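PTS transporter subunit EIIC
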Amino acid sequence: MATEDKNRATAAAILPLVGGAANVSSISHCMTRLRLGLHDRSLVQDEALKAVPAVMGVVEDDTYQIVLGPGTVARVTPEFEKLVEEGRAEAPAPAAPLTAEELAAQGAEMKAARKARNATPFKLFLRRIANIFVPLIPALIGCGIIAGLNGLLVNLGWLPSVTPALAAMASGFMALIAVFVGFNTAKEFGGTPILGGAVAAIIVFPGVANIEAFGQKLSPGQGGVLGALGAAVLAVYVEKWCRRWVPEALDVLVTPTLTVLISGLVTIFGLMYVAGEISTAIGTFADWLLSNGGAGAGLVLGGFFLPLVMLGLHQALIPIHTTLIEQQGYTVLLPILAMAGAGQVGAAIAVFFRLPRNESIRRTIKSALPAGFLGVGEPLIYGVSLPLGRPFVTACVGGAFGGAFVGFFNQLGDAVGSTAIGPSGWALFPLLDGNHGLGATVAIYAGGLLVGYLAGFVATYFFGFSKDLLAEFNVSQDPTATPATAPDPDPAPAPASATAKEPAAL
C-alpha cells in the first residue's frame, strides 16, 4: 500500500506542474519516460518538475517527456491517468466557449509548436519505427532472461525436466515476433492492426516450406521482422485503396479479403525472399565488421552512440538488433553501444570531483548515478554533461574506449551479445550471451564497463573543463554557504555573477 501511495503522490505532484488535467491531451510511457501530449506547452513549470524527487529530468520532443526511470514509470503512469480522468470529471464547464475562429487559430498554433522541432521526414519515419518495436521490448527482456537462465541450467545439468519448458517460454515469442511486428506496423501506419498481423503471420507459417519462389523453397520465418514490416505496410496501402473504391455494402467482405490476398501473394512471391536476403546481409556484415575491425568498429560505435541518441537516430538500429537476435540468438552491437553509458557515468563522477562548490550539480549527480549504473542515462545527459558542454564530448571518449575494448575481443573471436534490447549498464548482465561460455562473456562486458568508466573519468577530469568553464560553474548555489567550504582543484577567480545552469560552449 505504501508503494501505491508513493506512486500516486508522484503523479499528483506532476499533474499541476504540467497545467492540470485539462492541459493533457494524451498519456503514454516507454521504458523510462512518461510521455504527455499537451494542449498548451507554456503552462508547464519545467524547473518545478525537475525538483520533484522522483523526476530525473525532462525532454521535449513530439511529446513532453518526464524521465522517471524503469519500473517507476510503469507504476506512476496508471496513477497519473486516474488523476487526469478524475480532474476532467470534476472540471467546471468553461464560462464562455471559444469561437470557431479562435479554436482554429489555437489548434494551428499548437500543431505548429509541436511539429517545429524534430519534424523532418527522416526523424518522423524513425519515430514510427520506434513506435512499432518499443512495445515489444518488455517481452524481449523477459524471454531473454528466461533464455539465459535456461542456458545456465542446461550447462550445469540441473533440472532437466524443467529446461524444456523454459526453452518453450523463451522461444515462443521469438517464433511469432513477426506477427506482433505486423500488428504494430499496421496500427502505426493507420491500417487495421489485425490485418497487418494476419499478413505477417504468413512469414512464420510452416506451410510456406512447400512454396517455391525465385527458384528455391521458402523457409518459415524467412525475411523475419523486416519482411513482416514490409508486408504490413503493403497491407495498409492495399486496405486504404480498397476503402476508397469498394462500395460500403461490400466493404466488410471485400476489403479484408483483398488486403490479405494481394499483400499475401506479394509477401510470398517477393518480400520474403528480398527481406531474407537483406536480413542475411545484415548478419553477415555485423559479423564481418567485428571480426575484421572489431576494435575500430567498437571505438566508432561506442563513441558516437550518445550523439545518435541526442538526435533520435539510434531508433534506426532497433530493427537491426531485432534481426540479429532472430538470426543468431543475440545482438553483438548492443553491448558495444552500452559502453556509451559507461563513459557517461565516468564523466559524471569526474564532474562531481571537479565542481566541489556546485551543490546543485553534485546533488543531481548523486541522485542520478544509481540509474546511470543501471543504464538509464537521461538524467546524467540532460542534467549534467550536456548543459556543461565539454563533459558530453569526454563522455563520448569514454564510450569509445569501452566500445573498442569489447570490439577487440569480438575481433579475437569472443562474441559478446545481448539476447534482448532495452537494458544497458549493469542491467544488461542477465541478458548476456556469446560463443565462448557465460563466464567469458560476462568478464569481457564487465571489463568494457570498467574501461568506459575509467576513460570517461580521466578524459573529463583532465580535459573536460577549461579555466573559464570552472570559473563559471564551480560556484556555490546555496546563498547561505561559505564560498570556501571546499578546495578548488583549479583555483581561478570566479565572477560574482556566475551561474550553474547556463550551457557552456565547447
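thats it. Residues 329-473 form one domain. The first strand starts at residue 24 and ends at 29. bye
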